[in-house]
Amino acid sequence: MVLLNKEASAKIFQEKNQKHKRNIIDLHRLHVPEAESHFKEAVEAARERRKLSLLVIVGKGIHSNGGIPKIKPTIYALGERLGMIVNVDPRNDGCLVVNFK
Hints:
Layout (H helix, E strand, L loop, with lengths): L1 H16 L6 E3 L5 H17 L4 E5 L13 H11 L3 E4 L6 E5 L2
Parallel strand pairs: 1-2
Antiparallel strand pairs: 2-4, 3-4
């Protein structure tokens, strides 16, 4: 079951992100641990390509229990723990702008 969940997560991530530019990742609708893992991988890949920032689609929590976002605060805190500057996108509060120092 764990393996099937991991495969499903990878497929969802791939389908949601194939249309985005390399400095944009969509974590919307993933489970929190999956989102964290994909975020870390995306940060590493962006740094290897010498990108200065990453736009992270996290959603607004509309589909979460009680309408409370789970991915957004987790990725925000993780980015800060990793030494990045994280801000909510002023054009869309379901997105985070992550700037590398």
